[in-house]
Structures
1.
Amino acid sequence: MAASRGLPVPLAIICLVLISGYSFLPTTGVAAMDPTRSPGPQGFTTDDSLPSAEDYDPDREATDAPILADTLPPLWGTLCNYDPCLESQVSCGVLKAKTGCSCPGFTTQREPPEIPNLKSVSWNGSEVVVHWCEPYSYVTGYIVRVAGKERQRFGKDRRAGGLGDIEEVSNVCVVAVNDVAESEESCMMYRPRDHSLPLKAGLIGGALGLLLLLLLAVLLWRRKRQRKQQASISMRETAGTQ
């Protein structure tokens, strides 16, 4: 007792704190545990809400969230019904947004356009007409050149156009343009037909018709003359018999 009185005050306080800490340890935690649950590591019980190895189903991921076909666009994965050679049709980008179809790869607005495909250069009876197909690029218009000189400009939605009359054999080219640059040329040689052939045929036909009319007139005149001669001969014979 005398020794305890001789201890320093701080050491005595520390001893009291340690004794009181051990006396207040929880004693109800083990009693409240469910005896049917197996203790987990470090004395903690396992939670039934957590999945165990026995509850794991490898096919559950494929069956829990099925992909419904109705949620996909109707033409998902198919090419859009878009013809680059036709005019006045809905753009491929609009078709893709509406139906989910796929468009060919288009170049961006920051790149020069690809080469358009010049399909034909022909005479339609009154002028020379060119027909081309759109490149898979961003395009703002088209330029048609004849013998290296610009002849016509057309809008981005056009796929054909008239050039007027081309009298000589010439190289006809079409280029696509946008805000960056022009594409390379797509060219075709045009050889004009002889436009005077119908006129010549008309002149020849007219001359033949006139010749036929003259022959018919001569035949009618000779027939009329023969009738007059026969009539005069018959009158003379009648007068001689009297």
Note: Residues 197-241 form the longest helix (45 residues).
2.
Amino acid sequence: MVGGALQIAGLLVGGIGVIGTFAVTGMPQWRVSAFIENNIIVFETIWEGLWMHCIRQANIRMQCKVYDSVLALSPDLQASRGLMCAGSVLSFLAFMVAIIGMKCMQCAQSSWQAKGYIILVAGLLFILSGAVELIPVCWVASTIIRDFYNPMVNVAQKRELGEALYLGWVSAFCLIAAGAIFCCFCRCCEKTRSYGYSTPTHYPTHSQHLYRKTESSYSKSQYV
């Protein structure tokens, strides 16, 4: 009962993390224009993402343009594009392995060892995908904060943290939490299995021999 609840909770949390990872990868709100000092053009907002940059004017019209070349991106966004694609693939793979593991749990013909290995692999993949997603999100956030407080950077080029970064942190946390849940489930199953298959207590051979000897003597005396 508890094991089934853990599996469902892990799958739900992992599913939220997978959806969030795909959303973060495609969202353009990684870097958002900052309205500070002389840069007070509030009717125009600039978004910069991994695949495109958008200009939103007075909440009425938005124009987006895909980057002409990968080299046009800054080094952190170039690396983030590859890492987020890898994180998306790993999270989706972990989700599919988790579903296969849950189906194997319902199959009585499968061995407990094989079931535990599948769930453990799913948990490790979830943790790995969450760690891979954290790297680009934290890297881009660190670059934005560093440039924001750098007096040598032009005010018009300074950016703020976008919604995609916050969603990325939440998604990475969900992936890591799902991986931890599946790993804990695998550990609990291992303890239960080792307890259930513990060897029964056997009497020593000497005691059995003594018991048989006593029983034999009693039978002879009763016969006489």
Note: The chain has five helices and five strands.
3.
Amino acid sequence: MRYGLVVLTAGFTGLLSFSLLAVAIGTDYWYIIDVNKPNYTGPDDLSSHSGLWRINEGANRSSVIPSFTANMSSLSEAERHLLGLHKVVVIMLPLSLVLLVFGWIFGLVSSLACSPNLLAGTASYFLFCSLFTLSGVSIYIRYSNQAMEEFQRIVSPENLTYVDVSFGWSLATAWLSYSLEVATGLLLMLAARITQMKGHYDSGVTIAML
């Protein structure tokens, strides 16, 4: 397999993983609540969709999730636990995004240098970054499930029959970004192996010519 094709593919997947994670962090379709209550004639849409930073209710209402500004003393133990999980998510995913920027720079330098050690180190760095993305997404799923359990405890079972909840495309985009981060790391590992094998081959040819 050609070295140039492998590193170009790795560069593309690394850039695409960054772009997808940026889109996921900035959009508000991580969690969707669809309410289809029959005979409801109110002016407001009861459905909502939320992201890492905002909750959008109906067509025009939006509220910021107060992860760092909430008065913790006025909250219940369950609410404090949920906010704690949310804080972890909104720290880990943007941190992963920043780390990907440096990873792409390291990948460019190591691919131009054709150094197997640098390529292997950059590959390990991308796999390390993917752990941040994986952890952030997994904790968000846990946070959403626990929030739904708390919601079910408050709302009557009769009203719950009209509520349909699902994860949105923003979460799917974050999962795809994680997959591409892993793919980038594996491609860089392959590039390091190709460079190492080429170095051994060139050394063998040189020795044979002496």
Note: The chain has five helices and five strands.
4.
Amino acid sequence: MAASGTGGSRADNGYGSQQPRRRKGPGALATAYLVIYNVVMTAGWLVIAVGLVRAYLAKGSYHSLYYSIEKPLKFFQTGALLEILHCAFGIVPSSVVLTAFQVMSRVFLTWAVTHSVKEVQTEDSVLLFVVAWTITEIIRYSFYTFSLLNHLPYLIKWARYTLFIVLYPMGVSGELLTIYAALPFVRQSGLYSISLPNKYNFSFDYYTFLILVMISYIPIFPQLYFHMLHQRRKVLSHTEEHKKSE
């Protein structure tokens, strides 16, 4: 359930990028909406970044910084659910299933793990994925905004296709460590678990489900990471060739 979208392609787990398919772009109204959406999301993640820095400077410590940005993090990460609708309505050329998977995995970690298991909110691993998400999303939403306006600075393009090399492993490590830290509390409390007997004759063990989520990172992470490295070589080399031709 390794994750992470936008008004553009999200086949990158939020840390890298997949080249969007060549097709006719959105109409003027849809473009205006997507620009506004991406500007708002960029601003939102900037608020989170500033909140982290201010809290760190005030406390003089990086421990428990989650509480300083908890509300905007929940709001703007949940706001990414709109990206599934963008795909469903066809205003962006991305897979609905893939985008839903990537968006929901982050929403899951935000609400079903970090929010629901209060004990993990002080873990340093939470800060690890929050910082990775924040830097990633500021770059990603800026990338889409400038792309929609047809004025994409090379620096943002370079950052979009380069910083994932560090940010993706950093974010995934934080996600896995946070889920791992939640396991004993989930097991002890029986959180979200359903035991037999019940009238529906159905059982569900949230503890086991979280372990399966962690295991799912093993096949998914290498595939996405190497795919993004391939995309980086293709996109940036194409940019360099274009510059030389000019």
Note: The mean pLDDT is 90.
